[in-house]
Amino acid sequence: MRFYKPISLAIGILFSVNSYADGILEDEPYLIGWSKVITLSAGPAWAWPGDDQTLGRLYVYPVNFDEVHRFRGSKDASTLGTGEVFLALQHQTGPNMIGRLGLAFAGSSQVEVKGTMDLVGVPSVANYSYHINHTRVAIKGLLATENPGYYVQPYLSGSFGIGFNHAYSFQTQPPVYLLNPGVALLQLGYQSNTTQGFSFTLGAGVQKSLSRHWQVGLGYEFADWGKSRLNNEMPDPWGYGYPKLSNLYTHELQFSLSFIC
């Protein structure tokens, strides 16, 4: 499977710190009370933004006929990079359990949305593509074990907040030309647009303490970026609409480094 190699490598890196960490943590008391925690996370992610969409009426030069056009999304995966800064307060929530609650600021590299277009009932007339960048601000929580007898400390995490999805760089190959009533012949295109919407994440993984103040982690995180869309570039008297996604989901392999103040 395509995820086995990076996951195996990540587990090897995490577990290789055991000898060093055991020496540092011997007879080291665990932190009690409220603590400030800064966590930096990064890793590769995968998305499948392949939604199909049918838009409104269209005049296609030189036929000048009224017909719907369809976007058929590719089912191929798009690989990207993601990163996050998590600023939290940590407190013991129960025997051998700790909780963290704070603000998370996250972002990503671009996701490519691509596929084929059907025009006037003719399939695959042109290929289309555009890109989406994502940033978000969220309230995030994490619940983890804190037992010195465990080799690693399992955790669960989740967040919800506002996502900002910037869609841009729409193009077709070959170019597609449109003729609207009373408007000159124009090449099909859409303007960039930033959409705000609800975004959330769910995660799970393990952490390993290197000292009283440093931890490394390895985990998986599922994210829903929320909605995104392009804007019309030309007058739209017939209400053609624009390419959009109701949701964009990513699956991330997440490496983290935490400093406990």
Any overview of this molecule?
The protein is mainly beta and 261 residues long. It has one domain: Porin (Beta Barrel), CATH 2.40.160.20. 8% of the residues lie in helices and 62% in strands. The protein is built from two helices and 17 strands. Strands 1-4-5-7-8-12-13-17 form an eight-stranded antiparallel barrel. A two-stranded antiparallel ribbon has the order 9-10. The longest helix has 12 residues. The protein starts with a helix and ends with a strand. The N terminus is likely disordered.
Question: Would you summarize the structure shown here?
Answer:
The chain has 261 residues and is mainly beta.
Q: How many domains?
A: 1
Q: How big is the Rg?
A: 24 Å
What strand line-up does the widest sheet have? Answer: 1-4-5-7-8-12-13-17
Would you state the CATH class? Mainly Beta
Helix share, percent: under 10%
Signal peptide: 1-21
Keywords: Signal
Secondary structure: elements and pairs:
Elements: H1 4-15, H2 18-25, E1 35-47, E2 53-59, E3 66-73, E4 78-94, E5 97-108, E6 111-119, E7 122-145, E8 153-173, E9 177-178, E10 186-187, E11 190-191, E12 193-209, E13 214-224, E14 228-229, E15 231-232, E16 244-245, E17 249-260
Antiparallel strand pairs: 1-4, 1-17, 2-3, 3-6, 4-5, 5-7, 6-7, 7-8, 8-12, 9-10, 11-15, 12-13, 13-17, 14-16
List keywords for this structure.
261 residues; mainly beta; Porin; 2 helices; 8% helix; 62% strand; disordered N terminus
